[in-house]
Design goal:
alpha/beta; Nucleotidyltransferase, domain 5
Length: about 325
């Protein structure tokens, strides 16, 4: 059985003045019981409409149901003043801090939900500026091999170490990724220092078989000085890049998304490697990381496609072979 429109009506969706006038016209041809049954209301409601009606629709307009008297448990004028004063003096104050100050300084004893409803009802949060969502700018990814490497360091999770590993031992994964091919080189170290950064790049050059034009890093102390240094002293890693003819480019502070390719690869490492890793020594970690490096460079990626567009989901190794042949005429 289908429910009529009038049967779905709720108390907070009252009849319009036109519907009330129509009901009163029906009352002229029938009795009150029939009209009340037809419009799903009480007889007293029909009588009230008849009493208010003076021939105009304005007389049947719905009025506010708000009570004329304040609820006995509502916020007092003194409490309202305290709330307004605190918000005015601290425009960016949070609900928890505001509630704590009210309790501490003014013996406020109401529930936090009551305070929140009062603030929302009175527009204390209405004028808060909305933060504009971040729109990433287009990034110019190199199309040729060896144009740019991204370089970063990741802490090896402590829970991956077995009980045979000492508590004060720490391990770090140094990661180098070629932006054009997404091929990576990773190597573990026990210290996060500049000398290890230089050693990792030397190993990466041997692994890839070529030197990059640009190495992009964050502003970590293992890559560059975080403060100005007197007498023009160069950082160990900067000095190495200068000697090798490599441009060292640092990203804007606190913006890891600018090194997004290597950061994204670290997230994949958590899902594919560290989630299941269990190593018993530093040498064991190096062995397992070497096997994982071989595996990760042979996993297809949706962003890698051939230049002619015929082949998609290439692996970093396949993309490397294509670019080596295209750029340098080298067949591996």
């Amino acid at each position: 059985m289908q429910t009529s429109r009038s049967q779905k009506r709720r108390w907070n969706n009252p009849y319009s003045p036109k519907e009330k006038e129509k009901a009163l016209r029906l009352l002229r041809m029938s009795d009150v019981k029939f009209v009340a049954h037809r419009y799903h209301c009480t007889e007293q409601t029909v009588y009230r409409w008849k009493r208010l009606y003076d021939g105009t629709l304005a007389s049947l307009a719905n009025k506010s149901h708000r009570p004329h008297r304040q609820h006995p448990n509502a916020q007092t004028e003194e409490e309202k003043k305290h709330i307004a004063d605190l918000v005015r003096r601290n425009p960016n104050i949070g609900l928890n801090e505001l509630y704590g100050k009210l309790r501490l300084y003014y013996a406020y004893s109401r529930n936090p939900a009551t305070l929140y409803r009062y603030l929302r009802r009175n527009g204390f949060y209405a004028n808060k500026p909305k933060r504009k969502p971040y729109k990433p700018k287009p990034y110019d990814t190199p199309e040729h091999i060896g144009e740019k490497w991204q370089f970063d360091v990741k802490c090896v999770p402590r829970e991956c170490a077995a009980s045979s590993v000492l508590e004060d031992e720490h391990f770090f994964q140094y990661t180098v990724i070629d932006e054009a091919t997404r091929e990576r080189f990773i190597y573990p170290y026990q210290e996060q220092i500049a000398d290890n950064s230089v050693d990792c790049i030397r190993r990466a050059i041997i692994y890839f078989g070529y030197k990059p034009k640009i190495i992009q890093t964050d502003n970590g102390i293992e890559f560059t000085f975080t403060q100005k240094v007197k007498s023009g002293r160069l950082h160990t890693f900067d000095k190495f890049c200068l000697e090798e003819g490599i441009e060292h480019k640092t990203i804007k502070p606190r913006t890891p998304r600018h090194n997004g390719k290597v950061e994204r690869s670290h997230r994949s490492d958590n899902e594919r490697f560290y989630k299941y890793l269990r190593f018993y020594s530093y040498d064991d970690l190096k062995t397992q990381m070497k096997a994982y490096l071989r595996r990760s460079n042979n996993i297809p990626m949706s962003v890698l496609a051939s230049k002619d567009g015929k082949r998609k989901w290439l692996t970093p190794k396949e993309k490397r072979k294509e670019l080596l042949l295209f750029d340098w005429g080298v067949v591996e």
